[in-house]
Amino acid sequence: MCGLLLVAAVVGALLWMAPRVIHAESDPSHALWSQLFNSRQTFLVPSDDGIVMFQNLTGHSVHLAEYVSRSYLSVTTPYHIDQQNMEDLDAQRYTSVADLDAVLKFTRLSEEKPDHVMVRYARELHMDDLKDANAVLLGSSYSNPWVELFQKSLNFEFSYAPHPNESYITNKHPLTGEAAIYRNDANTPSHRTYAVVALVPNLNNTGWVLIVEGLTMAGTQAAVETLFDRSAMRPVLQRAKTSSGTLRPFEMLIETRSFGSSAPQANVIASRLY
Known about the structure:
With 274 residues, the chain is α/β, with parallel strands linked by helices. The chain has a single domain, classed as Chitobiase/beta-hexosaminidase domain 2-like (Chitobiase, domain 2, 2-Layer Sandwich), CATH 3.30.379.10. It has helices at residues 2-26, 30-36, 49-58, 64-69, 83-91, 97-107, 129-132, 148-151, 217-227, 230-240, and strands spanning 42-45, 117-119, 134-138, 156-159, 168-171, 181-183, 192-201, 208-214, 250-259, 262-273. A hairpin with an 8-residue loop joins strand 4 (156-159) and strand 5. The protein is globular and about 60 Å long. The model is unreliable at 2-24 (pLDDT under 50).
């Protein structure tokens, strides 16, 4: 009798697990999530919107070295904001609702391991965190300066200015049919903007960093929505998959037409594999 109960339990467990195994094998994003959420620590790093406001107020672009040392706090603003308010702006943890929504999506993935995942505000991240751990960096170098560590190795490079229409993405090596520059177009009713999703090795080449960056908040939102859209991700992920089932580094350029701060339609218009 005990033997029959044991067999029944094993069969039940296999039947319960089978749909999950089939689902994992059919989901093109499973390899990506498994690569990011494994036995290593994974940091989810939302953008620092305080540094965005600081740059917009001062017209001074804050690079990673200044961001880490906090030396940018000595920069004066033409709007005569007193030092106390500047320091308060630096002390607060401002981020966007789009980034919070993205973090929530990541924590709901079946591949996510709660014991190995930590949300770390960009200002509290350290260089060592990006050496051997996995990470998801939300926002571009303008809102998340840590992206600067990986930007030069990417084909689609962001250039930022305090005015949205002056920001753009440089396509370093355009392929046939691609533009050399992709700019925001805030003057048209559709407000066309762009974003990039990139998977790159961490600093010690021992783990992975996923970069999700947009020229605007709507761009970042479009990148997140594309990332969680299986049909949109399938072509790139299938090409990036190696014979061992892992993914090699890749980039995706995304175009979206936004209304307000939302991104109703997004398309992958270019990609690179490494």
